[in-house]
Amino acid sequence: MTALIELKDLTKLYKQGGSTIRAVDGVNLSVQKGDFLVIIGPSGSGKSTLLQLLGCLDKPTSGEIKIDDKEVNKLNDGKLAELRQHKLGFIFQSFNLIPTLTARQNVEAAIAKRGKGDKNKALEVLEKVGLAQRANHLPSLLSGGEQQRVATARALINDPEIILADEPTGNLDSRTGREILDILKGLNREKKQTVIIVTHSDYAREFANKVVEMKDGKLHSEKK
Amino acid sequence: MFYLTYLKAELLRRWGKTTIIALGLAIASAIIITIISASQGLSASQDKVLNPLQNVGTDILVSRSVETEKMSELDEATRTELASENRVTTDLSKLGKAGESFSLDTFMSGTMLTFASSETKKLTADLAKEYAAGLILNVTHQEGKIPEITAEFQTGGERFEIPGVTPLTDAERAALDAARQKAIADLQAKGIDPQSEEGRRAVRDAEQAAMPERFKGGPSSFTAPSRTYRQTLDMPQTDIKTESYTIAGVDTSKTDIGLILPSQITEGTYFKAADQTVINLSYAQKNNLKVGDSITINVQNASGSGTSSKKLSIVGIVDPKLYTNTADIYVPLADLQTMASKADRINIILIKATDAKAVDATSEKIAGLFTGAQVTNSKDTASKVTGSLVSAASLMNRFIGLVSIIIILAAFIIVSLITVFSVNKRTQEIGTLKAIGWKNPSIIRQIFLENLVIGIFGAVLGVGLGIGAILLLNHFNITFSANVASSSSNIVQGFPGFMRGFREAQSATSSASIGTTANLKLNVALDYLILLIGAAVAIAGSVVAGLIASFRASKMKPQEALRQL
User: Is A126 inside a domain boundary?
Assistant: First the structure.
């Protein structure tokens, strides 16, 4: 069985002042469909850069990223955007909701193929994350946990194969954080959606079937 | 149509930003609308004054004007003509007996010399589509009591005495008489006529012989000293008042070309019958005259003695638009020619060129036909205008381009800066949209549309403000004045030196009728094209800002979504 995501010798260099920073340094990693992967590392370890590369938000300096056996680093910006829309769902530490849009509109903003029933679709997903009753609220009227649920709903609206989360619980208290992780775990279990979480803390470990540690741009695999 | 939902949400929920940008664009738009409209209003007013000819359906004026500054350069014939056309009666005694009241109007052509009305025959159909003749005269009006001008010189009666000789006594005188009588009797006896040469000598000799001795000391001679008497006579003190006004004879056969047109009558009617006059609005106001009043003109009889008067009834008030050649009183041309004893004389021809596009060429041809005459077209009249209108208009013309560009640039820069600033604040939002799959064209469309809609709001608001500003400008009735130098000026010639006082009175009043001050109300028109330009400015501003902002947004990277703020 081929891996859903295959990273080969992936390297990302940043030039900062006179020196070059090896943010991601020759990473090899394969992620199988249905994995719940947690990437743990202290800040500055390069884990966020790795997530950017995994999420096709940025292009590597060298090396290869294959998603569904497709080399994505050769795609142009437009194709990458399509890929992100159809295959990936993003959850951010600070939720990144559009402040002027209601919860439901924020979810609708991510709908890939627009058509009739979009509004119901958004509501359905909000229902799943337990926020249907607050669908018409602006983000500023929602609590952090509620906002992250909206963000999660947004990530799920296109039924992505891969859900990428950057410190999804970083701005939440532990109980709310756990609720979010529970939602993700449920999706992972029921729909075999692949979940990749980047974090600096350990608490997500218990949800993972695979944990890797990152340090100075290099990965250190760890058996669960 | 999610982008419309997003657009509406963005504009309404960030209404502060929307309002500020829209207001900025609206103000720029309104200022542009106001400036251009005001400038056009000024230009329209200016055209009326600068090209007064068009107000009376005219392209070209022909006259024989003499410039007062060049009077000394004139040839003898013209100088004589000028003097004869401006002669004022000085011998008031011919008007009646001393002490009687008199009123006299003297017509003078001023610096606009007259010429025969037959001259107009030179204007052939290829030159003039239409023409009208006119006669504009300065009138010196004198009234008061006829003065008694007497100068008395008394001579003789002086007594000369020769000192040292005692006069004859009665006895001596009797002896002298007796001697004379005797000599005459002797001569008659001899048959000699005492009046003849011989007789008179004989009588004188006899007288000499009878003279007392003291008279015989030789002949005594006396010469009276030679003396010259000089006396300066001042003008006699009377209550004579002198006024000046101008009168114009109008070619009534033409109604769309002429010194005044029926359409310029502001009150009453145009001439309908003989002995009617139409007076200038400003003259009416100054002299408190109105329709229905009458003006009496007293002209010296052709014989030279006495005056005859003509009563003209005022049938209309006119606001003449030929600013370079206005008059106080207008009468039909034939009436004026009769009153002023200038039969078949005119001093101005108004011409409508046959070829409206070749006025300059036509002017030259006409100048060739009328030697010594002045041929004026609108270009020449423009230079005679001064005053606040001209300053305002020239200021406008000089700065309108610059000011408009500065306003447009300032508005564009400010609006673009605000827009770019606000889009920069949305970096994470835009990065997030990109991260969740929005492509650049969608992002650009979104940002651009936001600005375009703001621009449309701004345009609507700007047009509203602009219309408001224009209505306000019109409401304030801003008036500009334009001083137009008159083509004719009153010169007084032929006054003898001792009539100094007269001349001073004359020149003091005559200046009033030289030149015209036209007061023009600034009328700013609402022009749809200008409103459209103003709207376009606002929309163009939003397009420029939108393009810059959406370009910036398109350059933003999706990984910005992950940046922690």
Answer: yes
Structural domain count, chain B = 2
Place of tokens 């994470």: B428
Least CB-CB distance to B564: which of A94, A98, A111?
A94
Structural domain total, chain A = 1
Cross-chain Cβ contact B562/A111 below 8 Å: no
Q: Which residues pair with A13 in a beta bridge?
A: A22
Instruction: Show contacts of B404-407: CB within 8 Å, 24+ apart.
Output: B404/B32, B404/B35, B404/B36, B407/B28, B407/B31, B407/B32, B407/B35
The pair of three-digit structure tokens given for residue B435, joined into one six-digit string = 């991260």
List the beta strands (DSSP E) in A32-125.
36-40, 62-67, 70-71, 88-91
Contacts with A102 from chain B: Cβ below 8 Å = 9
Would you say residue B529 lies in a domain? Answer: yes
- Whether residue B426 lies inside any domain: the answer is yes
Q: Where are the alpha helices (DSSP H) in A57-199?
A: 77-87, 103-108, 118-128, 144-156, 174-190
> How many C-beta atoms lie closer than 10 Å to residue B83's C-beta?
12
Q: Are residues B401 and B256 in the same domain?
A: no
- Closest CA of chain B from A148, distance in Å: 14
B-chain CB neighbours of A82 within 8 Å are: 437, 439
Segment holding B338, helix H or strand E: helix B333-339
Instruction: Answer whether A52 touches B (CB < 8 Å).
Output: yes
**B167 is a domain residue:** no
B297: alpha, beta or left, given left = phi > 0 and alpha = psi -120 to 50?
Answer: beta
- Kindly give the confidence (pLDDT) of every residue in chain B, 565 residues in length, as a single tens digit, with 9 standing for 90 and above: 788 889 999 999 889 999 999 999 999 999 999 988 888 888 787 777 777 777 777 788 888 877 766 667 777 777 787 777 777 666 677 777 777 888 888 888 888 888 888 888 888 888 888 888 889 888 888 888 877 665 555 555 555 555 566 677 788 888 888 888 888 888 888 888 878 888 888 888 888 887 777 766 555 555 555 655 555 555 555 677 888 888 999 988 888 888 888 888 888 999 888 889 999 988 888 889 989 998 888 888 777 777 888 889 999 998 887 777 888 899 999 889 988 888 888 988 888 888 777 888 888 888 888 877 888 877 676 666 666 666 777 777 777 778 888 888 888 899 899 999 999 999 999 999 999 989 999 999 999 999 999 999 999 999 999 999 999 988 887 877 777 666 555 554 333 333 333 444 343 334 334 456 777 777 888 889 999 999 999 999 999 999 999 999 999 988 888 876 5
Q: In chain B, whose CA is at the least distance from the CA of A54?
A: B559
Query: Cα separation of B523 and B474, whole Å?
Result: 6
In a domain, A205, yes or no: yes
Helix (H, G, I), strand (E, B) or coil at B506: helix
Domain stops at, among B345, B377, B409? B377
**CB pair distance less than 8 Å for B559 and A86:** no
B398 and B477 fall within a common domain: yes
Does a structural domain hold residue A179?
yes
Same domain, B368 and B402: no
Residue B523 lies in domain: 2-51+388-562
- In the numeric block, the tokens 């050649």 are attached to B325
Partners of B437 on chain A (C-beta within 8 Å) are 81-82, 84-86, 110, 112, 158
Q: Which residues of A touch B438 (CB under 8 A)?
A: 81, 85
Which tens digit of pLDDT belongs to each residue from B264-321?
888 899 988 888 999 998 888 888 998 999 888 888 877 777 788 888 999 999 888 7
Question: Looking at residues A96-109, what average pLDDT do you find?
Answer: 93
The answer to whether residues A196 and A160 touch, using CB atoms and an 8 Å cutoff, is no
- Going by DSSP bridges, is the β-strand pair A36-40/A210-215 parallel, antiparallel, or unpaired? parallel
pTM, rounded to two decimals: 0.65
User: Which phi and psi angles does B315 have, rounded to 5°?
Assistant: -105, -15
Q: Are A93 and A75 in contact (CB under 8 A)?
A: no
Instruction: Read off the CATH number of the domain in which A112 is found.
Output: 3.40.50.300
